[in-house]
Amino acid sequence: MSLRTNAADGKNHLLDLRDVEGLTMGLNTFGIKTFWHILDYFHTTGKRHWLMTTYIVMYHLIGGTYCLLGFAAVFFIDQEDIPRMAAAIMNPLIATQAIFKCWTFSYSTAEYLKLFVLLKKNFMSCVPPEKKLAVDEVTKKNIGLTNQFVKYAMRWNCFTLSMVSFMPYLRSQAFREFFHLGVGPIVPNKVFENEYPFEWNSSPTYEIIWFYEQICAFLAVVTSSAYQAILLYFVMAIVGHLKVLGFVMGNMKATDFTSDSNETMDETAKAKSYKQLVLCIRDHGKINEAGDLLAERYNTFLTFHIGIAIVVGIIAIFNCTVATELADKIKFGIMCVYGLLEVAIYCFCGQLLENACDDVLRQVYSCEWERMDPKFRKAAQLMMVRANSPICLRAGRLYRVNLETLEAIQQLVYTSLTMLTSMVQ
């Protein structure tokens, strides 16, 4: 992302430094700076940067080949070997998930960039001048929470995916002998558990597979981290705007429009209060419109992603319970944590949006509506009706992605795991 101001070169940049004051957004990292610059280039020119084009082509060629080889290898496995069959399916599914992330963002970049207006500080216009300092404190707290949320989510995401690249060392013969975890020879290790429909564990095929899977792991880390970070920023931006709106509404007092607390509101004061409420309603409509666009843009992705994550979680837990090698247990445990943690983050984001909408509803009711005129009360009632239909992320356009959904997913994983375990036994 360019850190130049819009006036510096006469171009309308995606964001500038003043727009994201307080948001770290990884701008102190060279790789993330390059990522934002690529998005800004697309925004200002309408064309894909050569790095974006190279990335898309590489990801589809490498990731697509990985998926095809992985799914093809399933037909060469003994169908009665359920743990091996399940493990062979797991990694191609994760690769398909990552390719879908790349595909949805790459071919809908212009639509996604429309949502970046949410990150701008001047998104809302309903803040009265006398409450600007108090509102700035609300905004700063939300920005601080956003920075922490994104930082730890990205670190954990990178950690779990990077750990996969180190798994061959845990399964190596030297490691087993040093820690007395087993005896006997072990076949050469792959980075992933992916099977191949050809003989792969002999030189030089083994070295080629190793290098190939390392590239796949790197692309998965980049894609997953970038896509997840963008969603987190959007969600937290909407939450921040809703908090500001709720603060303005909850602190709307009759004394804001009269000079004396005991003075009855005259027609001028009533007109001012109604005008302020209209500004709040308009901003509420802007927030809801942006929230609906966000939910629409991520609906297909969340549907596909959560569905695959459930399957991967079931397979990972199942193989973790039946594995005999400690290294294999660790590997499947990491994959389980990675898959279900991503789902948990998305469900937590959805819950944050719903909670913020509910807070607006309560704050509207908390304003001194009883001292306002009937016109104000009717307009506030309409705002409450709209706030009663919260912004929510959805999967399949039917199911809300929130903590209740996360609980249902956990129950489904447990039930499926019990069924698979009984089949093996």
UniProtKB/TrEMBL annotation:
GO BP field: signal transduction
Pfam families per record: 7tm_6
Residue ranges of coiled coil: none
Keyword tags: Cell membrane, Membrane, Olfaction, Receptor, Sensory transduction, Transducer, Transmembrane, Transmembrane helix
An MF annotation (GO) of this entry: olfactory receptor activity
Subcellular location: Cell membrane
Spans through the membrane: 56-77, 215-239, 301-320
Primary site of residence: membrane
InterPro entries assigned to the protein according to its UniProt record, in alphabetical order: 7tm6_olfct_rcpt
Membrane topology summary: Multi-pass membrane protein
Top-level taxonomic group: Eukaryota
Entry keyword Mitochondrion: no
Record bears the keyword DNA-binding: no
CC per GO annotation: plasma membrane
Protein family: Belongs to the insect chemoreceptor superfamily. Heteromeric odorant receptor channel (TC 1.A.69) family.
UniProt name for this protein: Odorant receptor
